[in-house]
Amino acid sequence: MPAPALPLSRPRGRIEARTLLWILAALCIATMNAPHAVWETVQHLRVPDTDDAMRLVEVRDLLAGQGWYDNVQYRFLPPGGVPSHWSRLVDAPIAGLILALTPLTGPALAEGLTAALWPVLLFGLYGWLLYRGVRHSFGSRAALLAVIAATQTFGVTIQFQAGRVDHHNLQILSILGLAFCMIRGGLRPGLIGGILAAVSLAIGLEGLPFVALAALFLTGDWCLRGRPALASLAGFGLGLGLAAPALFAVQTAPSLWGVSHCDALSPPWLWLTLGGLALAAIAAAAGERLATVPATVPARLALAGLAGSVLLAGFAAAFPSCLGGPFPDMPPLVRIHWLLTVSEMAPLAKFVARGQWEALVFYPVVILASLTAAGMVWRGPERRAWSVVALFLWPGLILGVAQFRGLYIVSGFVPLVAGVVLDRALARAALPAGARRWPVALLGAAMVSSLWMIPALLAETLAPGLRNAPDAAETNACLGDAAVRPLAHLPEGTVLAPIFMGPSILLRTPHSIVAAPYHRAIPGLKAAIEGLGGTEADLDRVLTAFDVRYLVACSARPSENLQAETAFATRLAAGTAGSARLVPLDVPGPLKVWRVAP
Fold it and tell me: How far is CA 323 from CA 189, 268, 315, in A?
């Protein structure tokens, strides 16, 4: 049957469907951030996370004249301070935006405006990248639907909300861009993809598993297909192998070029990137000798296997401490009583056990997107695109089940899959009534994470007794400007406070701190755990050892008890214990504050 003829012109007054989608996209983007959240960010530096506060502290120090290569936070465990493993490549553009705004607004307002604007600018870049990438493989309507879906994907929106100046949003951009380069194929996309992979590693090692998977995919593709896949592998190896050392040199003092760190781009990881460059160079130099299919498939596999074995053996021999992950020297006390209590390190089972139903807005959409991408690999002409998307989604999901932070990067891929499925649902809507239209539409809707708020809220309402996690609102009340800013009026000194409060104290006061949630500051973490969770003698020992001037407690978030009895600091905050050495101070807000007598 011939297709029905399309009307020569649309009825007067009717808006085209594409125009409606653009209007919907604009509305969704405009409403991503609540006005009061933006206002609080601009006026009071409201930030979503402790890492955002610490990032602003680093930027302030840079603007105040601290050296580019000097990433020590000197008010953290003074007088020596704690060296940060974060990248100056993230600090620099934020500092530049503050500098540009300061003459117009003054420094305080410039900070607030930057904290609000920076994530918006990055989301604009993410939306542009998502639209371009999806349009190339699946068409413009799917691309527009993907952008709309992104504004409703909580795993994405939390990383681009006002105040989110940490680096996870940049990681999403880098790895998503890498994926689109792999899908396109060729020398130039491969080169750009390699550079983006290097940027991801320079920013932080969260993207390392995905960079490794990209390298394995491109290597395997070359082993199986030969000449058609060589350009992509050569470009990726060249981009990664040259950009990673260059970025390392830009952000690392020359005196530290030979120092190995397992938690940041340094010689162990440069060894692997340079190995990838060497493999790509050998494959390219071999040219026609290894280009034919299938005669030389075993030869290519043998070369790749030999190169991989040499790389891994060299890594294990030269950098054995990094085989255990980024926290090789963390003592059990700190691992148990701090690391494993951090929400981003929590497994899915812990969210379920604690009745944290908000996990429903994160996990189901990633599961559905992973299953859909895997199913699509075996269908249609977009097999390569779906293979790459599945390549990133599945490991991210597995990591996310073990640790929530594994979902950070792969959540950026969910809108891609949702947009394509929703586009196909719209296409099927024009089919006859008897056609199977609803399954695709339901699948697309199920990948819109904002809809999962309904069962999450129902579970919270119907079974409130199952929740035993700390109240996030009460905890945040101890971190805000209204709670912490009054401390700034006290004479400067070192503060012992709950670990999670450290960055906010650095951001909002001139004081120094003992502890903050960072693994390079093991002495401070150990001191806060023992001092705030132990006996009066434990607390006295920590106050003396770290020359603490102020003790601060957040009643809503007491430290974990290390003994059978309630910790002395917790009883002190509750008013059921006292100490002649601790003088209560009248400070407005929810915090309890004591001055430590000599």
Answer: 31, 10, 9
Q: Using alpha carbons, select from 473, 478, 482, 496 the residue that is nearest to residue 572.
A: 496
SS3 for 110-147 is HHHHHHHHHHHHHHHHHHHHHHHHHHHHHCHHHHHHHH
DSSP 546-585: TT--EEEEETTSPPPPSSSSPPHHHHHHHTS---TTEEEE
C-alpha–C-alpha distance, residues 187 and 174, integer Å: 18
Instruction: Verify that 270 and 353 share a domain, yes or no.
Output: no
Counting every residue written for the chain, the total comes to 598
| SS3 at position 53 | helix
Q: What are the C-alpha distances in Å from 100 to residues 59, 63, 396, 443?
A: 14, 12, 37, 46
Same domain, 535 and 586: yes
**Residue 272 in tokens:** 């692997």
Please choose, from the candidates 527, 566, 565, 561, the residue with its C-alpha nearest in 3D space to the C-alpha of residue 547: 527
Residues 520 and 502 in one domain: yes
Same domain, 175 and 307: yes
76 three-class SS = strand
Tell me which residue has tokens 């859909």.
372
Clarify whether residues 242 and 197 are in a common domain: yes
For 550, residues 6+ apart whose C-beta sits below 8 A from its C-beta are 487, 490, 493, 494, 495, 496, 511, 585, 593, 594, 595, 596
Q: Would residue 36 count as lying in a domain?
A: no
For the stretch 57-85, pLDDT in tens is 999 999 999 999 999 999 999 999 999 99
Of the residues 469, 493, 528, the one at which a domain ends: 469
- For the chain, how many structural domains are there in total? 3
Residue 92, C-beta contacts closer than 8 angstroms, at least 6 positions apart: 62
User: CA 395, CA 224: separation in Å to the nearest integer?
Assistant: 22
Task: Report if pTM > 0.90.
Answer: yes
Please name the helix (run of DSSP H) or strand (run of DSSP E) that holds residue 423, with its range, or none: helix 414-429
Boundaries of domain holding 546:
473-596
The model's pLDDT over 122-145, given as tens digits with 9 standing for 90+, comes to 999 999 999 999 999 999 999 999
Q: Which residues contact 296 (CB under 8 A, 6 or more apart)?
A: 226, 289, 290
> In the chain, what is the straight-line distance between the N-terminal and C-terminal CA atoms, in Å?
93
Cα dist from 108 to 254, 440, 479, 582, whole Å: 34, 50, 18, 34
Question: In 3-state terms, what secondary structure has residue 370?
Answer: helix
Rounded Cα distance, 115 and 13, in Å: 42
Residue whose token pair is 């939390």: 158
Contact 440, 519 (CB under 8 A): no
The angle that helices 140-150 and 414-429 make with each other, rounded to 10 degrees, is 130
> 489 and 462, same structural domain?
no
Rounded Cα gap, residues 91 and 118, in angstroms: 11
Exposed/middle/buried for residue 471 (C-beta within 10 Å: 0-12, 13-18, 19+): exposed
pLDDT at 3 over 50: no
Q: What is the DSSP string of 498-527?
A: -GGGHHHHHHHSS-EES--S-TT-HHHHHH
